[in-house]
Structures are given as structure tokens and as C-alpha cells.
Design goal:
The protein is of the alpha/beta class. It has helices spanning 2-5, 8-20, 26-29, 37-49, 73-82, 93-102, 142-154, 186-195, and strands spanning 63-67, 85-90, 110-115, 128-134, 156-168, 173-176, 181-184, 200-205, 215-221. The chain starts with a helix and ends with a strand.
């Protein structure tokens, strides 16, 4: 896999440089596909609502973490309507600054805006009911993704859930030189989740996205 990621520090610095050039808008966050935002959020809401509630196997609605949050598109439309308090983490400070405005009145329920790459981010132990990780795992090397998922597991409250929603390759690993990322196939993603000591509670493919983009899968882990 090292040949895919190249020199590690360059893999990360190129991605940071790429995102610094991206417009802090929904369209910018979605690579020009801002029109799919509602389909994406509605699919995520149906998926997540299966797990929130009272009783065995359910997760609480107190705290959520939005990983690779950008300007807070997912926090605004998905997490803040479902959770009392949300934290955002993103590598680009400009996006987090914009999030404070974009989230409007609901920004009062955001406790922390962490500016940090996920390879270096340490979630507070035992804090979160849900850690939501969308369209960002391709910016982590395999080793760092496994380590990050382990740290996320430590950041969960009892009954908490980690959710990954991301592009999935049809076979192997597809590098993207433009934004310095990779797209992994589902079998590899399963192996990395297993290496992190997590189990897959549920997985679903997001439907009704444009045919020309990657397939997108959502995985609930604990």
C-alpha cells in the first residue's frame, strides 16, 4: 500500500493544500455535486435513526462528533437535529470559521471546533454517542485509519456508534492525485475495520446518487 500513498508527509500536506483552495460552500464540500446533498442527508437520517433511542442496542442522543466536518453541512442537516451537542473536527481552519456562520442559531449547540487532521486527532474518551466519519477516510493511510478508528472506539459512550459513510471502489485501491486521497474497495475497508477491533453492526449502499460517481456505502461500527 505504501506505493499508493507515496511519501506520507507529502500525502497529507498535498491534501491540506488542496482543501485550502476549495470554496467554503456546500458545492465546494461536495466537489461540485452540491445537488446530491439532500439525497445524502435523507439517506443518512434513515440509517442513523435506526440506532438512536432507548433500550438494548440503541445509542443516546447527547453528543455527536462530525469528522472531516468542513463547513458543517452534515452537522447542520443531520447531527444537530438529532443530538443535543455536536463537536466538529476538520483540517481546514477557514471551513470551521465558516461553519460558525453557516450553522446559524444552532451553532450555540456546538461545543468544540477542532482544527486537526484525523491522523493526529484524539477524541475525548467516553464522550460521544455517535462519531460520524463521512467522505474523509480516503485522506488517511491504512495504518492511520486503523489507529484513528481505535481512538474513536475509546471516544464512545456506552452503546455508542461509529459511522463511516464514504466512496467505495469496485476493486482494489484507486488513488486520486488531485486531492491526495484513495478510494478503497469494501473488502479492504472490512479488513481495516476488523484490524481496529470493531464489528460491523449494519451496512447499506446509498441509493439514488448520479451514476458517474463512486458507489457510496454507510457502515455502522461498534
Amino acid at each position: 500500500m505504501d506505493d499508493v500513498f507515496g511519501e506520507e508527509s507529502a500525502f497529507y500536506s498535498k491534501a491540506e493544500d488542496y482543501w485550502k483552495q476549495v470554496s467554503p460552500t456546500v458545492d465546494g464540500m461536495l466537489g461540485g455535486y452540491g445537488s446530491i446533498s439532500s439525497i445524502d442527508i435523507n439517506g443518512s437520517k434513515k440509517f442513523l435513526q435506526k440506532f438512536i433511542g432507548e433500550g438494548q442496542g440503541k445509542t443516546g442522543s447527547g453528543f455527536a462528533l462530525d469528522c472531516g466536518a468542513g463547513i458543517g453541512r452534515i452537522s447542520k442537516r443531520l447531527l444537530l437535529p438529532l443530538f443535543r451537542t455536536v463537536d466538529l473536527v476538520d483540517v481546514t481552519q477557514e471551513f470551521l470559521d465558516k461553519a460558525k456562520v453557516y450553522l446559524g442559531e444552532d451553532s450555540k449547540r456546538v461545543e468544540n471546533y477542532f482544527c486537526c487532521g484525523l491522523q493526529d486527532f484524539q477524541p475525548q474518551p467516553g464522550r460521544y454517542d455517535v462519531i460520524w466519519i463521512q467522505w474523509v477516510i480516503g485522506h488517511l493511510t491504512d495504518e492511520h485509519l486503523v489507529e484513528f478508528l481505535r481512538r474513536c472506539q475509546g471516544g464512545l459512550r456506552a452503546g455508542g456508534l461509529i459511522v463511516i459513510k464514504d466512496n467505495v471502489a469496485y476493486e482494489g485501491v484507486v488513488p486520486d492525485e488531485v486531492d491526495s486521497s484513495v478510494c478503497r474497495d469494501l473488502p479492504l475497508l472490512h479488513r481495516l475495520v476488523q484490524q481496529a477491533g470493531l464489528g460491523i453492526v449494519c451496512e447499506e449502499q446509498q441509493l439514488n446518487f448520479p451514476e458517474e460517481i463512486y458507489q457510496v456505502w454507510t457502515l455502522a461500527l461498534r
